[in-house]
């Protein structure tokens, strides 16, 4: 169990940021032969494992993970909120050499003489450059084809969580984060196999939503100023093939009443989503989803609101009641 005590200053400084590099790191763990990923990742994991096994450019990552699968900020720099993984890789390349030596010595204590570690101690700049190149190869082979969909899911999550924080406060943000996180003011508890406690005022908190978080909830402690906690973004089901998704929509009373397309849109609206976000999750054309949403909004079961240039849709009380009565689904806490 990890206990993080947050005083008013730390709560006020809490922020939410995306990090494609952290998603790529968690995806690495899901692709390891010892893992058995759940259904949203099964279409992805076969080709990803081929990249992991066969691309020799990934050797620096394979060596580090083979000897210590945990997390160090040498592997994962502080999230800066960018959607560009190459910007994060530039930060990795620019890591202070003294910091690299210190963290490698700490994380891999007793292995300092191992050939795969020696470059980090003798030529940290070159070692970090090789590690960044390994990440880039993994990204291009296993993540990049999915990133347009992933990016929309994570950006939606950031906007929705930020809006929750701004309108309902930190209690609502933490309470709705996910099952393995428990908030009892002033302590945030994370269910992990390690034991750790952090006193109030030590560091500020950064929350990072990810698509590939299944079974790999990360928290990073090397940074003296920031605690980074990653959590599962809604919508991992978007990694499934569209045909599988369409076939999974059962012919029930809701589908018979509204049609399968509109019923699927209604089911997916467990939280605010854009038209494109719904289209990604359902494997439908955005124009089709837009038509369904217009009809549902006209019937009073869906409402819309604008955040910046994006329009978000969510269920009204009537929509929730309709789902509860006809589909028998508890949609208020639904997480994909």
Automatic annotation (TrEMBL):
Domain HTH arsR-type, residue spans: 242-336
UniProt-listed Gene3D superfamilies: Winged helix-like DNA-binding domain superfamily/Winged helix DNA-binding domain (1.10.10.10)
Family annotation (SMART domains): HTH_ARSR, HTH_CRP
InterPro entries reported for this sequence: ArsR-like_HTH, HTH_ArsR_DNA-bd_dom, HTH_CRP, Metal_resp_trans_reg, WH-like_DNA-bd_sf, WH_DNA-bd_sf
Signal peptide range: none
Keywords noted in UniProt: DNA-binding, Transcription, Transcription regulation
Annotated protein name in UniProt: ArsR/SmtB family transcription factor
